[in-house]
Amino acid sequence: MSVRVAGHFGEWLQGRLGPAGPLALVTLACPALAVRATWSERAGPFAIDQDPCVIDAGRARAFLAALGLPAAGRVTLRAAMPPGGGAGASTATLVALARAAGFDGPTAALAAACLAAEGATDPLMQPQPDAHLWAPRAARCLGALPPPPAADIVGG
């Protein structure tokens, strides 16, 4: 199975909801930046072929186990963004890994597993990630939003 998960290009906005409130953001979805995961069943130990390297095999196995998925076979990961570049490479990789491995459970369960693996997570597991006021350190939607306006984003 092969899946593609889009990343983001930062946030439309980010900050605290009140002095003691949670960190909240609205992500700037960017389909040009994505991770593709292709899962192949095979005998032998779990293996990852990736470029660039985003996740090590041990962390991938633990993440899959947290979702009740077997770590068997081979996964090929290709990220069209640099890890650590602020484009959601780590969250997109986890979501792509889970979906390529056959995860079809609740989005909230996938968000919770991403949070446990990362400590904070982008809303990239959502069908429309930029239509949520998102709490990245709680992996939950604080409110639904209308889709953002059409825009041409220029960056580098």
UniProtKB/TrEMBL annotation:
Domain of life of the source: Bacteria
Protein name: Propanediol utilization protein
